[in-house]
Amino acid sequence: MNSDTEPLCFTENEASSSNLLEFLLLCGKLKETKRKGWVDHHIRYPESVSDHMYRMALFCFCSCPNHLNRDKLVKLALVHDLGESLVGDITPHDGISPEEKNRKEAEAFRKIRDEYLSSCTVGQELYDLWNEYENNLSEEAKFVKQVDKLEMLIQAFEYERGKNDWFDRILFLNAWQPRSTYGPFGFFHELIALHS
């Protein structure tokens, strides 16, 4: 994937360190970017995008099916919403078409690749991972898409358990119904049982 002249990761030279710092500061915005769906439903103390991605990554790390690549799952989970550091958390209720959302996020990932991470191949790897996830190009991407929905359901369960003002059982049940062989179905049914 990388050549001898193009480092996979940052070296110790000053320019690379500066780029890495800028990239990490950009990633830090995800700690402050609240998940828009929870904000729209007036949840007190809504989780951040970073919170969501972190638990997704841990879920993938702990529950990888034998036929999938665990490292790939964790990377996809950590990267899939990274573009939101530049474009925010866009939901279906924002009046932005899926095509426009995809265009904005692709543009954000190109900026990350070409400006923040231009001195190493990690930028291209991040872009390729996002594209793989966004377009369901692998079994791992399909699995992580299911984990994305499942993590939201776990968070919804926590909000209900914490006596938040909002919780909609119908939304909970319809948010993610297993539609394929990809996904941890047992966890979905455990959540339903806990919620009942």
From TrEMBL:
InterPro entries: HD/PDEase_dom (IPR003607), HD_domain (IPR006674), YfbR/HDDC2 (IPR039356). Its cofactor is Mg(2+); Co(2+); Mn(2+). It comes from the Eukaryota. Pfam families: HD_3 (PF13023). SMART domains: HDc. It catalyses: a 2'-deoxyribonucleoside 5'-phosphate + H2O = a 2'-deoxyribonucleoside + phosphate. One of its GO terms (cellular component) is cytoplasm. Its EC number is 3.1.3.89. One of its GO terms (molecular function) is metal ion binding. GO terms for biological process: deoxyribonucleoside monophosphate catabolic process. Residues 45-162 form the HD/PDEase domain. Keywords: Hydrolase, Magnesium, Metal-binding. Transmembrane segments: none annotated. Signal peptide: none annotated. Catalyzes the dephosphorylation of the nucleoside 5'-monophosphates deoxyadenosine monophosphate (dAMP), deoxycytidine monophosphate (dCMP), deoxyguanosine monophosphate (dGMP) and deoxythymidine monophosphate (dTMP). Homodimer. Belongs to the HDDC2 family. This is 5'-deoxynucleotidase. It comes from Galdieria sulphuraria (Red alga).
